[in-house]
Amino acid sequence: KKLKFGKSKPNRYVLVTLATIGCGKTTTSVGLANLFPELIEHIQNDNIQSPGKDKLVLAALEVLSRKPVVIMDKNNHKTVERKQIFDGFQRLNSTIPKSKLKFICLNFLQKPPKGDTELWNITKERVYNRGDSHQSIKVEKDGIGNAEKIMRGFISRFQPLNTSVEPDCNFDYIVELDAHQENSSLENMKKIVTALQNYIEDLDLKTPSETDYLKAFEKAKLYKPTFSKK
Ligand code: GTP
Predict the structure, then answer these.
(1) Is the CB of residue 184 below 6 angstroms from any atom belonging to ligand 1?
(2) Which of 23, 103, 144, 174 lies 20 to 30 angstroms, CA to CA, from 11?
(3) For ligand 1, mutation pick of 25, 42, 126, 191 (most atoms within 8 Å of CB)
């Protein structure tokens, strides 16, 4: 299927999350898509059955044939995963001119997660409260011990953003976020909108009111995946 490339708003933006489990990637992304349904769409690694190397990139390209912004929601906590995204677009994109495809990193962690007790406590509590409302981490079914093990795995494998070398030097722009506060996803939504408004000229992102933000955030917190891997 050929992608149709818009003329009036020529650039396409790929927002790539960089985080560990429970940092609020999905809540932040769904919240943004709630605020700007015409412009932003969220795709999730967890919603792809047996994620092949190319599937998430192909899904992103499909979105970009319809909308200017796609958020690729995945931890991308290892450099090799970031590299796979850049390589995937290089190989699979045949419709968007390279100069018009921009990669923006949503960096949820300002310092390495290992030994960050505060982050551990908040993300563990969130994962615990989420229960079974996740595609693969089922706290009620499999227990919190299992979830903690998975979380620890991500933390120990984590490789921070380093924009001076490959692959992270391919990001056009970095949005610095935080996951430590109680309502970090609401704050992160605001930080991302402001950053996009400052960085992007060809997107008409209207400034949402406080009520708009709160509504989108509350709705995002109720998000339940319709797809389950278990
Ligand atoms: P994984 O997909 O497991 O890696 O997690 P994630 O980073 O996508 O986190 P997600 O958005 O699923 O958030 C985890 C849980 O915390 C969910 O139940 C959310 O509703 C909740 N949550 C996320 N952000 C916030 C926040 O800012 N405030 C509060 N109170 N809850 C939040």
Answers:
(1) yes
(2) 23
(3) 126
Ligand 1 atom closest to the CA of 183, numbered from 1: 27
- Give me the numbers of helices (H) and strands (E) for the chain, helices first please: 8, 5
CATH code, domain carrying 36:
3.40.50.300
Summarize pLDDT for 5-57 with one digit per residue, the tens. 455 557 999 999 999 999 999 999 999 999 999 999 999 877 776 667 789 99
Distance CA 170, CA 159 (A): 16
1 assigned to some structural domain: no
Structural domain count, the chain: 1
Give the chain's length.
Answer: 230
Q: Collapse the DSSP code of 174 into the 3-class scheme (helix H, G, I; strand E, B; otherwise coil) and give the result.
A: strand
Q: How far apart are CA 211 and CA 98, in angstroms?
A: 38
